[in-house]
């Protein structure tokens, strides 16, 4: 038996001359109920009640422990260990997997909230995300420490014309191997709603282009031969669409990323964990599992029945914004970010996370 629907009443402000059967309530709140036949006049303001969903979110927000809203000393030290570069304009972190990027009311341990609380380094405002990584994606994460640097870098990352100025390279382990060893994927993406609008999925857009498609371009390069049915590939996004690399790998190349159950579910139903090799690839000596330092349990690699997502932002090249801003150079909006001498470039490389390092050591440590 379905529960009865909840109906909400909508009110508008009433004038001092209006008197009705609800005069006492109306005089107190200066509101009157809107009838279905009433015509709205320009300038009128209406008042909507707080919905049940908003009330539930507020209740959940009030019950979240304060430790998740304000990082403690150990959490702050952990976040600072993730920082691999810092200057007056930017922060670069090596984000671990399974850390959400952008928080909303139910999510408070997201990277933007934690960084704002723990990585301000004396600034009045905390650093802001220039770009995003998926929750399960690891690797280099760029944050702007000032409003000026954030604005400039965000523009570089969202402009395909300036993709050569600020670039990222990802390493991914995919199931299968692309038909061509290298190429450019130009496949627009669009979003569809699932489960009555509660979830969404990114798919390749229809060629007609009438479904709100967004341009999405990715360069790729196969890094070596197929090993145990999987291949390492390098991906370079020229646009920054949501789930762009995952959808391009799964649907455009036909090679889903290992551990991507959202876009490669059917392939993972046939997933078989890789056997541990008996001998080293070249020396022929008995294979010894090379575990990352301090790690006891190897979960999430290709040795696991349920591997984690094997997608890592390995390399990033960005202009030295701190040097440029300190020289008070002019910034043009016509496609040329600086009118005078270009600032030198900064290049960063992030080591693989533990699960990908194990997969790399087992399958292809000799690849370049």
From TrEMBL:
Protein's UniProt keywords contain RNA-binding: yes
Record's catalysed reaction(s): a uridine in RNA = a pseudouridine in RNA
Keywords: RNA-binding
Annotated ranges, domain Pseudouridine synthase RsuA/RluA-like: 90-250
One function term, GO molecular function aspect: pseudouridine synthase activity
Keyword RNA-binding in record: yes
GO aspect biological process, one term: enzyme-directed rRNA pseudouridine synthesis
InterPro entries, alphabetized: PsdUridine_synth_cat_dom_sf, PsdUridine_synth_RluA-like_CS, PsdUridine_synth_RsuA/RluA, RluA_PseudoU_synthase
A Pfam family per the record: PseudoU_synth_2
PROSITE patterns according to UniProt: PSI_RLU
Entry protein name: RNA pseudourine synthase 3, mitochondrial
Organism: Aegilops tauschii
């Amino acid at each position: 038996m379905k529960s009865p629907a909840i109906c909400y009443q909508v009110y508008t402000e009433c004038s001092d001359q209006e008197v009705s059967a609800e005069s006492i309530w109306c005089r107190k709140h200066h509101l009157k109920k809107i009838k279905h036949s009433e015509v709205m006049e320009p300038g009128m303001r209406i008042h909507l009640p707080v919905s049940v969903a908003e009330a539930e979110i507020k209740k959940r927000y009030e019950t979240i422990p304060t430790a998740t809203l304000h990082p403690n000393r150990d959490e702050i030290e952990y976040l600072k260990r993730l920082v691999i570069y810092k200057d007056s304009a930017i922060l670069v972190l090596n984000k671990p997997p399974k850390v959400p990027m952008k928080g909303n009311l139910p999510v408070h341990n997201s990277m933007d909230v934690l960084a704002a609380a723990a990585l301000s380094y004396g600034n009045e405002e905390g650093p802001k995300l220039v770009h995003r990584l998926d929750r399960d994606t690891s690797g280099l994460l760029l944050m702007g420490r000032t409003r000026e640097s954030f604005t400039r870098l965000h523009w570089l990352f969202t402009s395909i014309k300036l993709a050569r100025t600020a670039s990222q390279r990802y390493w991914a382990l995919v199931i299968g191997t692309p038909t061509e060893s290298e190429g450019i994927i130009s496949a627009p993406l669009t979003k569809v709603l699932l489960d009555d609008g509660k979830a969404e999925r990114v798919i390749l857009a229809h060629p007609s282009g009438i479904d709100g498609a967004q341009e999405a371009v990715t360069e790729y390069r196969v890094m070596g031969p197929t090993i145990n049915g999987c291949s390492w590939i390098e991906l370079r996004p020229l646009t920054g669409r949501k789930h762009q690399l995952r959808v391009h790998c799964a649907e455009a190349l036909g090679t889903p990323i290992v551990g991507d159950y959202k876009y490669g579910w059917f392939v993972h139903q046939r997933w078989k964990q890789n056997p541990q090799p008996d001998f080293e690839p070249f020396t022929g000596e008995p294979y010894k599992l090379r575990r990352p330092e301090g790690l006891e349990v190897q979960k999430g690699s290709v040795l696991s029945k349920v591997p984690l997502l094997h997608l890592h932002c390995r390399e990033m090249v960005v202009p030295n914004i701190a040097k440029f801003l300190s020289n008070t150079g002019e910034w043009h909006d016509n496609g040329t970010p600086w009118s005078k001498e270009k600032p030198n470039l900064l290049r960063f490389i992030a080591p693989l996370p533990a699960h990908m390092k194990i997969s790399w050591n087992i399958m292809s440590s000799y690849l370049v």
